Amino acid sequence: MIGSSIAHYRITAKLGAVYRATDTKLGRDVAIKVLPDAFALDAERLARASRLR
Question: What residue spans of the chain are helical by DSSP H?
Fold first, then answer.
């Protein structure tokens, strides 16, 4: 996954369960957390994760 892109984010490193990426539009570092499938299938967990933004 390192070196690949998600939308306008270029993945630069994996830090545990979080990826470090560069926002190519704004030119700054960001953190991207990829949720496990169990979260995506559980509406309550997904809502909780969405509020963390």
Answer: 37-40, 43-51
Q: 17-53, pLDDT tens digit by residue?
A: 899 999 999 999 999 988 788 777 888 888 887 776 5
**Torsion sign across C-alpha atoms 50, 32, 26, 1:** negative
Quote the number of domains for the chain. Answer: 1
**Six-digit token string for 21:** 């990426």
Helix (H, G, I), strand (E, B) or coil at 43: helix
pTM given for the model: 0.69
Torsion of CA 40, 29, 13, 37, to 10 degrees: 0
Alpha carbon 28 to its chain centroid, in Å, reads 15
Residue span of the structural domain in which 46 resides: 5-51
